[in-house]
Design a protein that fits this description.
The structure is a homodimer of 282-residue chains.
Chain A (H helix, E strand, L loop, with lengths): L3 E3 L5 E7 L3 E15 L4 E7 L4 E5 L2 E5 L3 H15 L5 E6 L4 H6 L7 E5 L3 H10 L1 H4 L7 E4 L3 H5 L6 E7 L13 H10 E10 L7 H14 L2 E8 L7 E8 L19 H6 L5 H8 L1
Parallel strand pairs in A: 7-8, 7-10, 8-9, 10-11
Antiparallel strand pairs in A: 1-2, 2-3, 3-4, 4-5, 5-6, 11-13, 12-13
Helix pairs in contact in A: 6-7
């Protein structure tokens, strides 16, 4: 398996490099599942400290220890920033963690989940229930297509679009381009909003700024917020929200049963560290 | 050097284990300085991604990339929570980063820095100016003593005490005990307050809770706040503030020239994730 090495003492370690200057290694107790799709190598591993880990082509995507932080932050913030959305599109999100969070809102009527790789969804449904949840919600429509192609040409369809992409290398690279955000803009209703993960302010400031500027060019209201994601490089992670209509972050979290987010964390997440404020606002 | 290994391709990597289930590895370009004190092995290394790194006995203490986040959060929050403190005690803080932050406040008249290991201070003064700063402030009195012994018996002396300790293993272990916090309580004036780093809510919840409960037993007002520290395990880090007098976190940051903290981050840092609120407040 990519990134997995067996040491002389018999221990298995998953080794993940960041820019060839930092390496995070996770002790692995067991390989729970592994398969090769037409897009990537998919594994679910049982680790010593992070519980189960979803790995795509050797890169850690989510863990049962901290995956809920990312999933809650990318889901509940846009839902609560909008006024009770009914039709939501998730691009990516193959681990089903975002769909699981969205299921907590009874007013959502439909959730289109467009994930390029059906085998990721299948793998997580069976072997990563801690993140995927029960996956029995009939409102979730899984569509195994290219997210960028899916959204192109859609007009005035969605209330909220969530871009839950992996890193901007390989199949997800296109999900950081201006044209993709423009297609999302078109697919949204007149009071619609979108959110995407926009990488680490510590290590990927260029990606973050590019994402932010692309969204800022299209949407009338653009805001950045952050959260801690222990297993992502830099720990501090950013999300960019673009809205056609003015929105207030003084909203409350309407769902219960969250582990990380609450109404105060929602508001606090929009308060940016000084260096980030300066980079973004100039 | 402890933790430093040379690979077959000639690369040097610093490897740091967390609970034997996670390993962080930093590519090292150069060993800038190394010495052995009576307490520990001290090194300052030039890394590929984190700039300079201070390492004590193989454990990363601070880096020039992200050290300011921790130093700003443990310094500016208590100073701004207090009403213009004059006499401040720093226990630990041998990298001089906290003293450097405190120097930004003209109303502080005296800063006692009690660090057990003089060689840490000497090393950082010479080789880690990015964190230590100019170190020419005449208000800083460096005292090379055991912090716990120093504070014992002091009565009604300090306005603010900052415990900038390393992890609760080795020489710093005593800095997490009830008796130590009690001595700090006694050393504070009647409107005094203290702050300590209380480890990671993700990986060290037991230490965090013990620290919090110890301080809560002594002080009338106890509050937890958090910040992201990329190079500490878990990324999310906690600080516990104990005050004899009621304090408001609605204060502004009075210093300028900060890279991470600002008035909004100060207030936001006291908003706790749901799981942490539940663990602490029950």
């Amino acid at each position: 398996l990519k990134g997995l090495t067996q040491k002389e003492n018999g221990e298995m370690w998953l080794e993940e490099f960041e820019n060839n200057g930092f390496k995070a290694s996770y002790k692995i107790k067991e390989i729970l599942h592994t398969t090769q799709s037409q897009f990537q190598e998919i594994s679910i591993l049982e680790s010593e400290m992070f519980g189960k880990i979803l790995v795509l082509d050797g890169i850690v995507q989510t863990t049962s220890l901290d995956g809920h932080i990312y999933n809650e932050m990318i889901s509940h913030v846009p839902i609560c920033a909008h006024h009770k959305p009914k039709n939501v599109l998730v691009i990516g999100g193959g681990d089903l963690g975002v769909a699981n969070e969205l299921s907590k809102y009874p007013f959502i009527e439909n959730i289109d989940l467009v994930e390029i790789d059906a085998l990721v969804v299948e793998s997580c449904k069976t072997h990563l229930k801690e993140i995927a949840g029960e996956t029995t919600d009939p409102r979730v429509q899984a569509l195994y297509e290219d997210g960028a192609a899916f959204v192109k040409g859609k007009k005035n369809v969605y209330d909220v679009v969530i871009v839950d992409s992996s890193d901007p290398i390989g199949p997800a690279e296109i999900l950081f381009h201006y044209d993709f955000y423009k297609d999302i803009y078109e697919s949204l209703k007149e009071d619609g909003l979108m959110v995407c993960q926009s990488q680490s302010p510590i290590f990927h400031m260029n990606v973050l700024k590019q994402s932010f500027q692309n969204i800022h060019q299209l949407f009338s209201f653009t805001r950045l917020y952050t959260a801690v994601v222990p297993t992502y490089p830099g720990g501090l992670w950013s999300f960019t929200l673009g809205s056609k209509k003015e929105f207030k972050v003084k909203k409350d979290i309407l769902a219960t049963n969250t582990k990380y987010i609450n109404s105060k964390i929602l508001k606090a997440s929009f308060k940016l560290p000084q260096f980030l404020k300066q980079e973004i606002l100039g």
